[in-house]
Amino acid sequence: MTRNLLPEWVGRLSAHEARMLQSFGLWITRRRHQVRPGERAFGYAGPQAAMVYGLTFVCVVETIGVSFMVRDWPAVHAVLLLLDVYTVVQVLGIQATAVTRPHVLTPDTLRLRVGARVDLAVPLAHIAAIRRELKFQGAGATVPDDVLELSVGSQTSLTVELTEPITHVQLLGKRREVTVVRFHADESGELATALRAVVA
Description:
The chain is of the alpha+beta class. The protein has 4 helices and 8 strands. It has helices at 2-28, 46-69, 74-100, 188-199; strands at 40-42, 103-105, 109-114, 118-123, 127-136, 147-150, 155-169, 175-183. The strands form 2 sheets. A 4-stranded antiparallel sheet has the order 1-2-3-4, with helices on one face. The longest helix is centred in the first third of the chain and has 27 residues, at 2-28.
């Protein structure tokens, strides 16, 4: 069974890497992924920005320091430089995918995204309630199995309750049924108002 699943994992991870690299191009050209005319986009990258840029700075400093220390060993220097550059790309990719892949409100769906890792379509017809509430991940409370937390910077600011379960597919393919979704939006009040208007 493990042998049969391994290619799927590899394929999913490869697709995730491709989406991340694609996001750099969108980020540089100030475009967003799959936001069509007439649809509204809501960003969520704010809480993690300072952490990502700070971590990127630390990684760059570490890369320079390590390169200086191993300059007399070309093979070691090349391997470590490759790993360090890959790490910087991965860290910056967190922000690039978050900025270029916002939540999208369409006439019939709320598309919730967390970078290139989560893309969940919530039918507006299945939304029973919308609440603005700030919650911090890991605050000690147990999260029920049917609650999906899409935190950014370890926090969520909106909660959506559903009339019936929807299926969330995780990065490696595992599926779970959820009836409550907690997520973050930088403009949570504006998104809550827009959602209540279309749901009503």
